[in-house]
Amino acid sequence: MASIRIVDVDDEPAFRLIPPCADPGFDHRTCDYWEDAERGSRAARLDWLTAPAAVAPRPAPADNPFAPPADRPPVRNPFLERDDDEPLDNPFAPTHRIERGRTSGVPRKFALLDRGRGIFGTYAKVLLIDDAPATYVQFGPLSAYPRAQRLRDLYPQLPASPLPAVITCVATTPAARRRGHAAMLAAAVCDDLAERGFAAVEAYPDLTRGADQQSGATPAFWMALGFRVAVDDARFPVLRRDL
């Protein structure tokens, strides 16, 4: 019997597990279609699969009459000096440090998926069958996906409160289709979103494209998971589920 495991995309090795698209012209690992409402693209971009080259630091100005000499000792600040090393007791200070998403030294798409992890949590999950990637789901808060917000702006009948989480992508490799893996992973994402405190979640199928050219699934897929049709549009319907 095949073993099934769901992993969160919370580090670069997990990011490398994201399966390729059925159509090689597209790639989940380089897609910023939902994150960039103006210029975002679903296209495969091989240069995005590696970390961008580090930007060389600017050279110091050769002669700046306004800059202090390099060998000048630091200016003494009496307000920063303390008699002991004990931290100040500040009841308004946060009790834990928020982990910042990684933005340098990683592939661009991973930086997009990781940017809100310290506050929201992970933005993607991968389902593995016998440790082989089979299904991918991308999700997150509405604020992380400007194109989803732009689409919602077209439909004033959508509820303004509570604002939903969104599932932007669900895709399964051709070899693993028709086995319920996409439904299993999408259901796990909905359960996770409910645990994170969201009251609703929305999905946005694109009915103008074929199954391999978009990853929003179909209204029937979402309705089988308890979603209802919130906007019945022939091209860009909206499916919504209360959590």
Record keyword descriptors for this entry.
243 residues; 7-stranded mixed β-sheet; alpha+beta; 7 strands; 5 helices; 17% strand; Aminopeptidase; globular
Brief description of this entry?
16% of the residues lie in helices and 17% in strands. It is built from five helices and seven strands, in the order E-H-H-E-E-H-E-H-E-H-E-E.
Q: Kindly state the number of beta strands.
A: 7
Round the Cα radius of gyration to an integer and report it: 23 Å
Q: SSE string, helix = H, strand = E? A: EHHEEHEHEHEE
In terms of DSSP E residues, the strand content is 15-25%
SSE inventory with pairings:
Blueprint: E1 4-8, H1 12-15, H2 108-114, E2 124-129, E3 132-141, H3 146-153, E4 165-172, H4 181-195, E5 200-203, H5 219-223, E6 228-231, E7 238-242
Parallel strand pairs: 4-5
Antiparallel strand pairs: 1-2, 2-3, 3-4, 5-7, 6-7
Descriptive notes:
The chain is α+β, with helices and mostly antiparallel strands. The protein contains five helices and seven strands. It has helices spanning 12-15, 108-114, 146-153, 181-195, 219-223; strands at 4-8, 124-129, 132-141, 165-172, 200-203, 228-231, 238-242. The chain has a seven-stranded mixed sheet. The longest helix has 15 residues, at 181-195. The relative contact order is 0.16. The mean pLDDT is 86.
